[in-house]
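User: My advisor, Dr. K., asked me to get a structural model of this assembly before our group meeting. I'm new to this, so sorry if the format is off. These are the inputs:
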Amino acid sequence: MEHNEVINRRDFLRNLGIAGAGVLAATSPWLSAFAAVNETAGERLKVGLIGPGSRGRFLLSFLLQNPKVEVVAFADIYQPSLDEALKMVPTARTYNNYCQLLADKEVEAVVVATPLNTHCQITLDAMDAGKHVYCEKTIGYTMDECFMMYNKHLEVGNIFFTGQQRLFDPRYIKAMDMIHHGTFGPITCVHAFWNRNNDWRREVPSPELEKHINWRMYKESSKGLMTELACHQLQVGTWALGKLPDKVMGHGSITYWKDGREVYDNINCIYTFPEGEMMTWGSDIANKFYGLEEQILGKLGTVEPEKGKYYFEDYVDPSPAFLKMVRDWEQKIFGDMAFAGTSWTPETAKDNPGTYLLDHTPETDGTSLNLDAFVEAVITKTQPRRIAEEGYYASILCLLGHEAIERGEIMDFPKEYYIDYPEYHTQAQTIAE
Amino acid sequence: MKDFTVTKKRQKQEIISLLVSFVIAFGLNVYAVVSYHAPAKEIFTSIGFVVITTAVIYALWTLLRLIAYGTCRIFKKNKN
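Assistant: The format is fine. Below is the predicted structure of the whole assembly, which you can bring to the meeting.
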């Protein structure tokens, strides 16, 4: 999809390989944001960006490709970030305090891409100032903050989007459509992981800026991998299972990067669901071999949306029958040989090349479409169904996981943070309420 | 160097051995196609595997005969 063209919803759905919009209403109702895309063609939304650091400028690059957006202001306490942003939009006004940007009457909507611990206050102030808000995930530093932010959105009625770009990633939308139609049978388990092999640090021009630039490393401003990475993938798990976990346990440690950071570099969490399903999330940033993935396991098949592939359990080997026969004889003769005690055969994974979810490589990971949807929603003054709720629960789940790690306890989902979101509330949870 | 003479009888025997090997290999392929519910065209498209298997069976049969021949000769020598 070309970003300099007005988004055509029909083309978007056709690119997904899905016949009509109706089929997505249950799986991805937030796509309704594009419903009036042609009618809004002549509109122009004035946007302010709070926090034009590296992530902020990444978002800015997409905003600038949308002909319905005019970026009019930037706010940051770090001048080099403002200078970089001005290179992209020389006509924009700059502020050293976000409150000044919020007081700018021309700004209709703000994009918040600041450190985690500042999201809540900025969002609350923005909503009070009548601005619509796109807030990067994780939305709040604590579960209380997330709850306040969500309730403020309900109270004020302004548009509220979160940076959960997978909600707009064509691969994920197609995968969820297949999952929710039962293509892979009941989903029993989701294994999500995000591995890297780097220290996750940014270059610091002078030591006093360390905590400002590497805010992700310090507990006062971040909860590390849980809030920066897990948030995306936990949302994928609940989206696939269509429900919320009721318990979480986990462990974290600083295993390799003992460089003064305060947040973990090695984490594993288990989320359990009321009917026994499980979701694991892990991250190790000293080995990138397995990269990132959400392995969604069903009785009939597996989906790996990051790879953009799915695999059926009853995979038929395309080799000629003669070769299959030779392999089977080989397996019979050598495979079941008893080494000690009972005979066994290692259940190593079968070589299954799988099938691509889409017949083309998507041109977006969803970030640009997420921003485009936000713009459409603000112009039409229509909050798409479930978008804020998905962001809210994704944030709550990663913060709950962090809490479980910190306390070293199995944590129950706190009932006080349930919101009115029947799509994710199973019978057991509703009764508990 | 001594010349070897391959008699007509020996040539006939070897051709029959090769043919029998081919028939066994071909039969295995037909069995595989039927039992793995593969398309019938594999009877012909897998002919390469059949040829290789023919050569393997023939080689094994030749090896067996050489062992038998060698063993007989050792016994005969011992008798004399």
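One thing worth pointing out at the meeting: The CA atoms of residues 81 and 87 of chain A lie 10 Å apart.

User: Perfect, thanks a lot.
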